[in-house]
Design goal:
By secondary structure, the chain is mainly β. It has one domain: Methylamine Dehydrogenase, Chain H. It has no helices and 15 strands. The chain has a four-stranded antiparallel beta sheet, with no helix packed on it. It has a four-stranded antiparallel beta sheet with strand order 5-6-7-8, with no helix packed on it. The model has no long low-confidence stretch (mean pLDDT 96).
């Protein structure tokens, strides 16, 4: 006996889709398109799409469902694009060199950006967009946030450790 077959639908997005994030509250899906310097917003109910211009080579995405804000790490422009989910308006915030990963603590409204070539994490205050760099190991490539303990974990590729 076999179960029901999954239904699949292909939705056209920008060039070189690299990363995805979902806002479960709004049923919107966000796709970082590395080569077209856009994020495609997909309506989960209708599959309608809206492109949003962001920085150069968007590499990673994170969503704060509490504030309905999407954060995009732009690898080559060394910044982060903030997208307001309700309007798709954007604002750019500086980060370190080669931001490769981004994570959100929705409890504190803080955004964490792993900057590979700067060997640091940029902390962005989601309410004010002010930034604070924090030194970590060599070649940070990935982040994880525990909102319960407010601890952030950083995988450091080149120093073979976790901060």
């Amino acid at each position: 006996m076999t179960g029901p077959r999954a239904k699949t639908t292909a939705v056209a997005v920008g060039t070189s889709p690299l990363s995805l994030a979902v806002n479960p509250v709004t049923n919107k899906i966000y796709v970082a398109n590395l080569s077209s310097n856009t994020v495609t917003v997909i309506d989960g109910a209708t599959s309608m799409t809206t492109p949003v211009a962001v920085g150069t080579n968007p590499f990673a995405l994170a969503v704060n469902p509490v504030t309905n804000t999407i954060w995009v790490a732009n690898e080559s422009s060394n910044d982060v694009t903030e997208i307001v989910g309700a309007t798709n308006q954007t604002k750019r915030v500086g980060a370190g060199r080669v931001p490769l990963s981004i994570a959100v603590n929705s409890v504190t409204n803080k955004i964490y950006v792993a900057n590979f070539s700067s060997n640091n994490v940029t902390i962005i205050d989601g309410a004010t967009s002010t930034t604070t760099p924090v030194a970590v190991g060599t070649g940070p490539v990935s982040l994880a946030v525990n909102p319960v303990t407010n601890k952030i974990y950083v995988a450091n590729f080149s120093s073979n450790n976790v901060t």
